[in-house]
Fold this sequence. Notes:
Order of helices and strands: HHHHEEEHHHHEHHHH
Main location: membrane
Distance between the termini: 43 Å
Strand order of the largest sheet: 1-4
Structural class: mainly alpha
Shape: globular
Protein name: Branched-chain amino acid transport system permease protein
Radius of gyration: 19 Å
Strand content: under 5%
Largest sheet: 2 strands, antiparallel
Number of strands: 4
Number of helices: 12
Family: Belongs to the binding-protein-dependent transport system permease family. LivHM subfamily.
Transmembrane segments: 12-35, 42-63, 69-90, 102-122, 142-167, 194-215, 221-240, 247-266, 278-297
Organism: Labrys monachus
Amino acid sequence: MIQFLQNLIDAISLGSIYALVALGIGLLFGILRLINFAHGDFITIGCYALIVPSADVTARLLIGAWPWPVMIPMICLIVVIVALMTDVLVFRPLRRTSSPTLMIASFAVSYIIQNGVLMAYGSRPKAVDLWSGANTQVMIGILRVPMLQLITLVVTLVLMVAISLFLKKTSYGVQMRAAAEDFRMAQYLGVRGNVVIGIAFAISGILAGVVSLLYTTQSGSLSYTMGVPLALFAFVAVVVGGMGSLVGAVVGGFTIGFIVTMLQAYLPPDLRAFRDAFAFAFVILVLLIRPAGIVPARSSFERV
């Protein structure tokens, strides 16, 4: 039982990361119908912004050496600027094209960012010591819990509450929800499309910046493709949760985190190398039972 609870905490922590990434992807899909595969590379940019640009094997902290009250907003600002630039330079000119075209464009943006990181930092993975004290363990009853997992969970809850309040209580939030329901009708009613989409990109960038800090602290290393697996699992989480549903994206993130962690813990040792295959098989099973996702968007059936 103790081991199960320990694994459950691990699952919630991993699910929190997936939920934040899925929320960033889900926000853009809800409004723009854009499956942004470059979102994982936004996370990579946030991670690499912590260190001095160099091809040396040993990383030297740059922004990562600043006090955290300055470092966190700066990393988020950098990622937000990159996200907004991709919107202005790539996605805005393609606004009236089809969803597959936008998706291919996001693939192109992803590869451009990855190659840009390669040119500036080289291809070798780099070890980074960021907030190593957060990896110490604390006792909660009979359980040993890494401090970072508690921080991840608290940060996730705070961000979700903040986004929920923004969407429900502010004018721009209401406009974003209207645009997610029916973008064209929202424009007829006075919603400025570019502003709403820009805000969605900015929020997506903030989420990617926060994830980059949490993930770097957790992994302790940097790689120019480190954001890709996160984006892949988060995209699966968005589909499992329900395309176009922000609640579904969060639920899907925690679901994927639970499945992956439990498979890693309870699969026979010989099969653990194939964990992801079992995870995706389970995803197919969920989609066969609920094709529209666990929490389908209200307008999903109309869109299909």
